[in-house]
Design brief:
- This protein is mainly α and 93 residues long.
- It is elongated, with a radius of gyration of 17 Å.
- The mean pLDDT is 86.
- It has helices at 2-9, 22-31, 56-65, 76-90, and strands at 15-18, 36-39.
- A two-stranded parallel ribbon has the order 1-2.
- It is 46% helix and 9% strand.
- 3% of the residues are buried.
- It contains 4 helices and 2 strands, in the order αβαβαα.
- It has one domain.
- Strand 1 (15-18), helix 2 and strand 2 form a beta-alpha-beta unit.
Length: 93
């Protein structure tokens, strides 16, 4: 959502290099045809297989069984920056 918001705020004719999964880059190119959006060479996953492993059934299972799923323990020094990253990903604009 941060990347989408950033691209949205750029003026028409802007050139924007993005290092992320290729499908988001392609989608942004279709949404903003007036902007030159391209991937950072070598910095992206052409297609991120891990993102496509999660199915609607996996999501349903987690929602139905979340009380039975053991929490993940993250060391405090990692937790601070991880929380910031997660909050940015989940932020709704």
């Amino acid at each position: 959502s941060f990347i989408v918001s950033f691209v949205d705020k750029q003026p028409s004719g802007s050139t924007i290099a993005i290092g992320t999964e290729i499908n988001l880059i392609n989608r942004l190119g279709k949404i903003y045809p007036d902007k030159n959006i391209f991937e950072l060479s070598g910095a992206t996953c052409p297609v991120c297989a891990n993102m496509y492993r999660t199915t609607i059934n996996d999501l349903a299972y987690c929602l139905e069984n979340f009380r039975d799923i053991k929490p993940i323990q993250v060391p405090e020094k990692i937790k601070v920056n991880a929380r910031i990253a997660l909050e940015r990903m989940l932020e709704v604009h």
